[in-house]
Write a structure and sequence with these properties.
The complex is a heterodimer of chains A (about 775) and B (about 450). By secondary structure, chain A is of the alpha/beta class. In chain A, about 25% of the residues lie in helices and about 20% in strands. In chain A, helix 7 packs across helix 21 and helix 12 crosses helix 13. Chain B contains 19 helices and eleven strands. Classes of the chains: A alpha/beta (about 775), B alpha/beta (about 450).
């Protein structure tokens, strides 16, 4: 620690801090533009010039390290004169078009100009005009307003991992621009809107739709991936106009993924279901809530009476709130059915009944940043968990060694130590090799089941990296959790973590991947899992928040089962053609923005939120709908007056973290079989197709990440099939679809990568297994 | 002829044969690489070597005049990877000494760099050569080939355990790449933009490793310093201003060119060596150290001696030794307009005051020159320069400001005449005559 003095106040600060950090500690604000705590220091805007005793010139507070005994003056004549000088320079070429600028009212330049600018400019020459750039469907540009602080450039290079923006030309003609003919396509691109201190980069979807001071603000929680990013939802006249990050250093830091930022556009989709509907004689009719609820209650009771409760299946979206899940499982169990599940894309349920607790991340999200050795197994990390990828990217820069075991070689924009890329059926065997190699290095015996496993070079390299650290973890991604041998992968990861004295965990796929277990929205006893109740069709289904055909591991099978059912009651915020086809009753329920509720994120953190807007039309919060259904069915324990009451019953209060988190299991039999034979499917769930809300956000659907699925193959596979990229391929086992062939160099042999969760690939059935591929 | 006149030639001893004297055998015949051999064979310690350079009071010839020995002593001894970088990005208007050094005697720079590598413990060097003197870059590459073939570069130089290699790297002509950290960025393949200091290159230089950067002329002087001894070299000049210095004299003299003279030589003597004023006209002003140095009026410069201290005392800078001589036919407003345009064009665009201020300065001076000046413009120019100076990462903002301030300070009446009369104090015909390109009276 060193002692310094700022404006006469003494304080102790850590050695190596900068003046601006020290001032922050003291609560002293130093004006700045280019400085951002999460980005490297540029010291180019010069707004933060302050006076330092004995320094002949004003010093940039953002870049000047503190020294013992240093005396800093942030408001002295010298400092203020320098700051005002810089402000004058910043404004001479700035268009000062605040009245028509989207940033107006939340503009750092506007705010600081009030304090440091003159009322009129001495600059009477012609002003600079800078051509606008096309950065894609999410970020709008007015480059004439740019003050060249380079925050956006540094963000793409340092946080998003690839320098998609740069500064071309020099001097007064300097311009921030993307590569020629390219846009900004990272899954984190929207953050440059927040970072831009002026109105050069603004939100394209939000543009010209509201002024910041007209908006109401509500804290909320992201309903998408398992991270549970904290949001500020901004509304005007009960319509969500914009979503911004709410800074939470433990979770999303100050970032949001584009999915989280722009999915709100789906809230106002024309496909919103706003009135209860009932199908009568093949015709859909909009009806009153009482009619629809009566209809649903009667239909379910009839099926239960005639065929028994087990004839009903309950499918819950993992994006549903804790309260919704809890009431839904209570309803199902009240009807005498144990068939309830939220793990819609999972295909291996053999660990059920053997778990020691609720599967979770295995650590705090923030702990990820402190890991020094990481093995990521089966994860499309950058697209499935962009902000966890971002954390690992930063760790890797500080020396953490990250290795990957996966069936695709997507560029994670992270410096990797080693990677093992193998066909899906090989993953358990590959992970077993790593376990074996680590055991050998540690000089301890491996599981007897691994007796015949011999570690190859890649496994040894990964093992050597893992044992060389002091804080290791094995993280299982969505692909590993959806894998047909998921239980084996999980058990091996546990063994590996045990050998390393580290941790193992699941990267939660959805907002409530942990909450679903907590809410008991999983089958018990003879109950059927999501996959089982679709494979063995039920007489009736209750679907909450999901589009089963797109959200289940085998969409084709789900569609067939729901169509065949006598009654399907769907609680949804949206309607789709498929839904109108298979459902008997459609109950319009609130999306996350219009209901109160709770998500338990992947680290087990309980995050409750209130509605940000009134429900649209006759939409009602799902917890209320389920409560009334329970009442109508005369079930016990449905007398809740608020979602908080429901939460209290589930959690027994409002803990910060849920109890009973444990990734361990007893008696999972390792299944290292790897004979697949044929071309194996690798199915990713594209980032903007993962849930019903994001699928309806038009700006996101126009983003680069929303391309139509193709059949991706490596060069050898293309050659073997005698096709070139762009050729049409007939893909499929039973029902076939025609997809364009696409070259993806990093894919292993014997693999075709075809995205799931998309209408174009629905007919292909299960996300895993073998597909025939031939030239169309 | 390469060399016109000199007093006490060191650096220019090899220039007399023009383009025929640059090769290795010529250099060796002049005693070249003897000092390198002596250093290696006597196993001179790094400390002794640096002490010798300190004794010479050799000051950086690129412009800042920082003591070279002191700079070398800043290099951390323990660092495993270090670099020596030579700055031949001679972009300062008026300066053309380094290109002649490399053209006529490239091996003195090479020898100097190898010895510097030995002194600071670097195994690798780069010479960054201005992109607009491509033939010099080619000449230097040829010289490197010769040195490498003769065993002066590479592993175990002259059978010693010292290994050092050297590469040439040419820029593309950006002025800012002559700023040492901008130069390092450029070598690294990035946009030439200066870095914030600290950390200085001696701690965080090329590729983040400790790096010593010196000007070409500085390196070239090293073998001569070791040859005659630091003290003798110092005594050639005057205290605190050791040795000889190359001056690039341009403008309205009879014999523009490079002149090597001892530090402390009177300006009058230098002017005489350059053949005096062209056409016998009256001296009006001199920029003594490259375009960014403040201009000095005739009466002031005529009393100066050519060394760091004397010129600084007169209110300017010796800089790189580029002496721009202007006679009475020069319109100072027009001259400033041209200089202001240069800095506007060459600002890298990184720091706000320079990016925005350099264009502002140019536009106002341009207006004045074109008869659109306003009475308040001179105050405005002074205020803008005041707001630019000392507020940026590198010194380019200061470089842009100095000419403006000094031209206005010393020639205010000329600016005022322009503003009040919408025309130039110096008759256009006189200007044309003085330029040498037009005959007097021809419109």
């Amino acid at each position: 620690m060193v002692e310094i003095e700022i404006d006469g106040k003494t304080l102790q600060v850590a050695e190596g801090s900068t003046i601006i950090e020290a001032a922050h500690q003291l609560g002293t604000y130093i004006p700045h533009f280019c400085y951002h705590k999460k980005l490297s220091i540029a010291a180019n805007c010069r707004m933060c010039l302050v006076q330092v005793e004995k320094a002949p010139k004003p010093m940039p507070a953002c870049a000047t390290p503190v020294a013992n005994g240093m005396k800093v003056f942030t408001h002295s004549d010298l400092a203020v004169k320098a700051q005002k000088a810089v402000m004058e320079f910043l404004l001479i070429n700035h268009p000062l078009d605040c009245p028509i600028c989207d940033q107006g009212g939340e503009c750092q330049l506007q705010d600081l100009a009030v304090g440091y600018g003159e009322s009129a400019s001495k600059y009477e020459e012609e002003k600079r005009v800078v051509p606008d750039k096309d950065l894609g469907p999410l970020v709008s540009t007015d480059m004439t307003r740019c003050i060249n602080c380079t925050r956006c450039i540094r963000f793409t290079a340092e946080i998003a991992g690839f320098m998609e923006l740069g500064q071309s030309y020099r001097g007064e003609r300097a311009e921030v621009m993307p590569f020629i003919g390219k846009t900004v396509d990272t899954e984190l691109s929207g953050n440059i809107i927040d970072l831009c201190p002026v109105g050069a980069l603004t939100s394209k979807p939000f543009r010209f739709s509201a002024r910041t001071w007209e908006l109401s603000r509500r804290k909320s929680v992201s309903p998408h991936d398992g991270l549970g990013s904290n949001l500020i939802v901004q509304t005007k006249h009960d319509k969500v106009m914009r979503v911004l990050p709410l800074e939470n250093e433990d979770i999303n830091e100050c970032w949001l993924t584009d999915k989280e930022r722009f999915s709100y556009q789906g809230l106002n989709s024309p496909e919103r279901l706003t009135k209860p509907m009932v199908k009568q004689g093949g015709e859909w009719k909009e009806v009153d809530w009482s009619v629809a609820l009566d209809y649903a209650a009667h239909a379910l009771r009839d099926v239960a009476k005639t065929h028994g409760g087990a004839a009903i299946g309950g499918l819950l979206s993992p994006h549903a709130t804790l309260e919704e899940m809890y009431l839904a499982q209570k309803l199902m169990r009240g009807l005498g059915s144990e068939n309830i599940d939220f793990r819609l894309r999972q295909s291996d349920f053999s660990a059920d009944g053997k778990r020691k607790g609720t599967p979770w991340l295995g650590m705090k999200i923030d702990d990820i940043s402190r890991l020094d050795r990481v093995l990521v197994v089966g994860s499309f990390l950058r697209k499935d968990h962009p902000l966890i990828a971002q954390r690992l990217r930063q760790s890797a820069k500080k020396g953490a060694q990250i290795s990957v075991l996966h069936s695709a070689d997507d560029d994670l924009l992270i410096k990797l130590q080693a990677r093992a890329i193998a066909a899906p059926s090989q993953l358990p065997a590959q992970l077993a090799e790593i376990v074996k190699a680590v055991a050998e290095l540690k000089g301890v015996a491996a599981d007897a089941a691994l007796a015949n496993v011999g570690a190859g070079d890649t496994a040894k390299k990964i093992a050597a990296s893992l044992v060389s650290g002091s804080n290791a973890a094995v993280l299982l991604g969505n692909f590993a959790q959806q894998h047909p041998q998921a239980a084996t992968l999980s058990a091996l990861a546990q063994q590996l973590a045990g050998l390393l004295g580290g941790k193992s965990g699941f990267l939660g796929e959805a907002a409530n991947s942990v909450g679903g277990y907590v809410a008991k929205a999983v089958p018990s006893g003879a109950g059927l899992s999501a996959a089982a109740m679709l494979k063995d069709p039920r007489q009736a289904y209750v679907v909450v928040g999901a589009e089963a055909e797109l959200d289940c591991a085998d969409g084709a099978q789900a569609l067939a089962a729901l169509r065949k059912a006598a009654v399907t009651v769907v609680l949804s915020s949206f309607k789709s053609q498929a839904m109108l086809d298979y459902a008997a009753v459609l109950l319009p329920v609130s999306p996350f923005s219009e209901t109160s509720g709770t998500f338990v994120n992947t680290e087990g953190r309980v995050q409750s939120f209130y509605a940000a807007a009134k429900p649209l039309g006759e939409t009602r919060p799902a917890w209320k709908v389920l409560r009334v259904l329970g009442n109508l069915l005369e079930l016990n324990g449905f007398d809740f007056n608020s979602s908080e009451d429901v939460r209290a019953e589930v959690l027994g209060g409002q803990p910060e973290f849920v109890a009973g988190l444990d990734n361990g299991s007893d008696g999972v039999k390792l299944n290292l079989a790897s004979s697949a034979g044929g071309i194996e499917r690798v199915a990713d769930v594209p980032i903007h197709f993962a849930d019903p809300l994001v699928r309806r956000s038009l700006p996101l659907q126009h983003a680069a990440d929303s391309a139509t699925p193709a059949a991706r193959l490596n060069a050898e596979m293309l050659a073997k099939l005698g096709v070139a990229a762009g050729d049409k391929l007939k893909v499929g086992a039973g029902d076939t679809v025609i997809l364009a062939a696409q070259l993806e160099a990093g894919l292993p042999d014997g693999v075709v990568r075809v995205a799931a969760a998309h209408a174009a690939t629905l007919a292909l059935g299960p996300m895993s297994g073998v597909l025939s591929v031939e030239k169309a | 002829m390469a060399l016109i006149d000199t007093i006490n030639p060191l650096l220019t001893t090899g220039w007399s044969k023009g383009d025929d004297g640059w090769s290795l055998k010529d250099y060796e015949a002049r005693g070249g690489y003897k000092q390198l051999r002596r250093v290696l064979e006597s196993k001179m310690t790094q400390d002794d070597l640096i002490a010798e350079v300190k004794k010479s009071v050799l000051r950086g010839r690129g412009g800042a005049g920082f003591p070279t020995g002191l700079k070398w002593s800043f290099m951390p001894k323990a660092a495993p990877e270090k670099y020596v970088v030579c700055n031949t990005d001679e972009g300062e208007p008026g300066t053309f000494k380094d290109r002649d050094l490399l053209r006529f005697d490239p091996h003195s720079t090479i020898e100097g760099m190898i010895i510097a590598g030995y002194a600071v413990g670097a195994k690798l060097g780069y010479n960054y050569i201005h992109g607009e003197i491509f033939e010099i870059y080619q000449r230097f590459e040829a010289a490197l080939d010769q040195a490498r073939a003769a065993g002066y570069l590479g592993n175990n130089i002259l059978g010693s355990d010292f290994s050092f290699d050297l590469f040439a790297h040419h820029g593309w002509g950006a002025y800012i790449c002559g700023e040492e950290t901008g130069l390092l960025e450029s070598i690294e393949g990035k946009k030439g933009q200066p870095r914030y200091k600290p950390p200085f290159p001696a701690n965080f230089g090329l590729y983040g490793k400790p790096t010593t950067i010196n000007n070409t002329e500085t390196f070239a002087a090293i073998p001569f310093i070791l040859g005659m001894g630091g003290e003798a070299y110092l005594n050639l000049g005057k205290p605190n201003n050791g040795g000889t210095k190359l001056f690039s004299i341009s403008g309205h003299v009879n014999r523009p060119g490079n002149y090597e003279v001892p530090m402390g030589t009177p300006f009058a003597k230098l002017l005489e060596m350059a053949g005096g004023m062209r056409g016998g006209r009256k001296l009006k002003a001199v920029i003594p150290g490259g375009s960014s140095a403040p201009v000095l009026p005739a009466d002031v410069i005529m009393d100066c001696t050519m060394d760091y201290d004397s010129i600084a005392k007169a209110g300017s800078m010796l800089g790189s030794g580029a002496v721009i001589v202007m006679d009475e036919t020069v319109c100072m407003v027009k001259a400033l307009e041209r200089l202001a345009y240069f800095y506007f064009e060459e600002s890298c665009g990184q720091c706000t005051p320079c990016r925005e201020g350099s264009g502002w300065l140019y536009r106002v001076v341009h207006r004045i020159e074109h008869g659109e000046g306003r009475p308040e413009d001179l105050d405005l120019l002074n205020r803008v320069t005041d707001n630019m100076m000392g507020k940026t990462i590198c010194a380019l903002a200061d470089a842009a400001a100095f000419p403006v301030r000094s031209f206005i300070k010393h020639f205010q009446s000329e600016f005022e005449y322009h503003i009040n009369n919408k025309k130039c104090l110096v008759d256009p015909d006189v200007q044309r005559a003085g330029s040498g390109f037009f005959k007097a009276g021809a419109a």
